[in-house]
Design brief:
The complex is a heterodimer. Chain A is of the alpha/beta class. Chain A contains eight helices and ten strands. Chain A is globular, with a radius of gyration of 17 Å. Classes of the chains: A alpha/beta, B mainly alpha. At the A-B interface, helix 7 and helix 8 of A face helix 6 and helix 7 of B. Chain A: InterPro entries: AAA+_ATPase (IPR003593), ABC_transporter-like_ATP-bd (IPR003439), ABC_transpr_LolD-like (IPR015854), MacB-like_ATP-bd (IPR017911), P-loop_NTPase (IPR027417).
Chain lengths: ~240, ~180
């Protein structure tokens, strides 16, 4: 079932949003936002506070349904999928990282990172081996037995990246992943995320208000008042023919 | 950047010739504006004229003859004075972008100041992506990382200023056109 969405015709976007509208009460967070995300690219979504960045990420990742408009993922339309299928996609094909890692404070890091695999039915021993490999990759395997409260902010975020990537997702959604870190910690998190995404050909939607973070992306779209601001055409850093 | 002081600093380690100094300068400051050979030789001659450096002799190594320079005692104390001196923060930098925004407002509908800022922002971001790629490349040394960081922080400062200005364009337009 999950392979269905992976069949993306050559040159077509992996994820495509059109005319997204979303209101919370009288506040219109999105007013017709549209964007394309291609396989393996890192796309920064920037904009001022209140421009709709986080709401856009929630709609793109199927966390909330838009009031109007569509989000296509391969052959599936997220805004029309039953909740069951949406949560399966979020478990298997999408990884999410927030500003504060949102790891479970009571669990050691190794169990936090293995959790998405355990939920997907992977046996515990195998889940731990795979989780350890990701912790190693992000330089926090030495902290595997610690609880999130016993680690630095940068270590927690790198563990959160490990948890987002442990299921080999096609897309990682990162909402201000360095927002709570100092500049050196932020640089380490962004370097780890960008290198890994490129090596594993994982697409990343990177929400940020920080231009130095957005500069890790292959391209950038800017939100203004809930819509994507038109930008002049610039040469693309990645080819879209895969 | 004071080329004469940086060259004096490179001479502090021992006598050297112009070609070698240029090569070491480019290694030390990989993101800086490249130093032309002619500028190296002119600067060395001025250092000699001012008593801060001296000609040590020549060497040929089978190739063309090269003049070796060395730092003098005056050169060494001038270098220490310069390195310990506070660099004045420059609050009134020439801001070409701001000038273009104001001119765009003055010429009315011919140029859209918002578009000027958007396009400048895109160009700044493109340069920031290039610098980020440089500093995260394989096997990159800390000198390169720190040089790229310096440029990135300055471009980021420009961008923040552009964002604030873009958000206040209508007030600025009213102010400029009323004056």
């Amino acid at each position: 079932m999950s392979t269905q969405a992976r069949e993306v015709p050559a040159g077509a976007p992996l994820l495509a949003a059109r005319g997204l509208v979303k209101s919370y009460g009288r506040t219109e967070a999105l007013r017709g936002a549209a964007l394309d995300l291609y396989a393996g690219e890192i796309l920064a979504v920037s904009g001022a506070s209140g421009s709709g960045k986080s709401t856009l990420l929630h709609c793109l990742s199927g966390i909330v349904r838009p009031d109007a408009g569509s989000v296509s993922y391969g052959r599936e339309q997220l805004d029309r999928l039953p909740e069951e299928r949406l949560s399966e996609l979020r478990r298997t094909e999408f990884g999410v990282v927030f500003q504060f890692g949102q790891l479970i404070p009571e669990l050691p890091v190794i169990d936090n990172v293995a959790l998405p695999l355990l939920l997907a039915g992977v046996p515990r021993a195998e889940a731990h081996v795979r989780a350890d490999a990701w912790l190693e990759r992000f330089g926090v395997r030495g902290q595997r037995e610690l609880r999130p409260g016993e680690m630095s902010g940068g270590q927690v975020q790198r563990a959160a990246l490990a948890r987002a990537l442990v299921t080999d997702p096609r897309i990682v959604f990162a909402d201000e992943p360095t927002g709570a870190l100092d500049s050196l910690g932020g640089e380490q998190v962004m370097t780890a995320l960008a290198h890994t995404a490129r090596e594993t050909h994982t697409a990343v939607v990177l929400i940020t208000h920080d231009a130095q973070v957005a500069a890790y992306a292959d391209r950038e779209v800017r939100l203004h008042d809930g819509a994507v601001q038109e930008s002049p055409m610039l040469p693309q850093a990645v080819s879209h023919d895969h | 950047m004071s080329t004469r002081h940086v060259l004096l600093g490179l001479l502090a380690g021992g006598p050297s010739h112009g070609y070698d100094l240029k090569r070491r300068y480019d290694d030390r400051f990989p993101q800086a504006r490249p130093l032309a050979y002619a500028q190296v030789y002119t600067t060395l001659q001025r250092l000699v004229r001012d008593g801060l450096a001296d000609v040590e002799g020549t060497e040929s190594d089978g190739g063309p003859e090269r003049t070796l320079y060395r730092s003098t005692a005056e050169g060494a104390s001038e270098l220490i004075r310069w390195a310990g001196e506070i660099t004045p923060p420059a609050p009134f930098v020439t801001n070409e972008i701001f000038a273009k925004v104001v001119v765009s407002i003055l010429v009315d509908d011919a140029v859209d100041p918002a578009a000027v800022l958007r396009e400048q922002r895109a160009a700044h971001m493109a340069r920031m992506r290039e610098l980020t790629a440089v500093k995260t490349g394989p096997g990159v040394d800390l000198t390169t990382v720190l040089s790229a960081d310096y440029a990135l922080a300055h471009l980021d400062a420009d961008l923040r200023w552009m964002n604030t200005t873009a958000a206040r364009l209508s007030t600025l337009t009213a102010e400029v056109t009323a004056a």
